[in-house]
Amino acid sequence: MTIPKSNKGIGYIRRSSHKQLDNHSIEIQKREIEIRAKAEGYEIIQWCIDDAVSAYRKTAADRPAMRELFMYIINNEADAVFFYEESRIDRTFNSFVTQIYNPIKALKPNCKFFCTTVSGEWDAHNTITEMKLLFAGQESIIKSKRTKDTQNGLLAKKIRPGSRTPFGYKKVIVDKETGYKTFIPDENAPIVLLIFYLSSWGYSNEKIAKLLNECNVPSPTGNGWHENTIDAILHRYIYAGHLTWNVRKSAHSSSRKPKEEINLIENVYEPIVPPHLWHLVNEMRELKKQTKQFDTPFYLRGIAYCKNCGISLKTKVDTPSKSAKKYMKYVCPNCKQKIDMDAVHEIVFKRFSTQWTQQFYKMRSHAQRLLLQ
Question: How far is 226 from 362, CA to CA, in rounded Å?
Fold first, then answer.
């Protein structure tokens, strides 16, 4: 038997964390919604679930399942929305009402909303409903402040606030009486060290990820390596032994703050990466920002100049589309003179090798004389 379109409903469920149990667990929300839908004469044809998604840090329109719900209703696939209670749909006071409820009501005025804790149809503009949304938002603000105060207190004691254990470390108890824990390198620490060495040799994040995947090196997630994962590891101060906090510009942005703006406490943990390698990788990163591309066959780009014009030489690949051989040139942008890349490299590297060998013998002779004095 085909169910009439007017009796089809969408169930929305949200859980803030995988650790969340009791009344906010997915199973309990689903059961209560099904009971309410049946009582109202609806069948839930689709579950839209935001699992481990904050309704305080993310507005309604920023949550994937909420956007999915919106599209189901707009596309005439259902005419009713069911949810557990107000804190599941919003903790920002009004984002659900302004971004989801009002637009749906404007486009589909016959669409109904039902809450398992409210008898009859749920009205977002009812005074009691507005108070519930207000309290849900206020509760999150209070929780957020308590969390930040606790984190600041721990940071003042050089203790890392609770968060995911970094790849390459394991958590151990160092004081049984207080329960104080710290991080020490684990069996994955050599992988982290290898990543830093590869980066210092000029490998791009993409190439490092490809190499690790080809060698079946275990990744933090178990789903393979990605260049973003490599980038995150290379930016983590903990691998140099430092404790950091408030690294991101905001909860809604993944952009990193400048070093001078983050909370940085030095020499808290046993480092995986030695100081010289940490600084070398950071210097390479800054150099790459200037040259735009570091892993390039044009080794002298940026430091080779035209003898006649004194202008930095540009690089150009003059390879015909059907040619198997690559023709790479250094080009003066002013006088348009070109020279083969390999020819330049051969001359420069040969001269460098000769001069370096001579200089090395001079330095060794000088050191021997100093030792004999």
Answer: 47
The order of strands in the sheet holding 43-51 is 43-51, 8-15, 80-83, 112-115
Q: Could you tell me the pTM of the whole model?
A: 0.48
**Digitized pLDDT (tens) for each residue of the chain, 373 residues in all:** 454 545 899 999 998 876 554 445 889 999 999 999 999 999 999 999 999 888 878 899 999 999 999 999 999 889 999 999 998 999 888 899 999 999 999 999 999 999 999 999 999 998 888 888 787 666 655 565 665 555 566 556 665 555 678 899 998 887 777 666 788 999 999 999 999 999 988 888 999 999 999 999 999 988 899 999 999 999 888 899 987 766 665 555 567 677 766 767 788 889 999 999 999 998 888 777 766 555 677 778 778 899 899 999 998 887 777 777 778 899 999 999 999 998 988 888 888 878 877 777 777 777 777 777 6
CATH of 169-291, one of 3.20.20.70, 3.90.1750.20, 2.40.128.20, 3.40.50.300: 3.90.1750.20
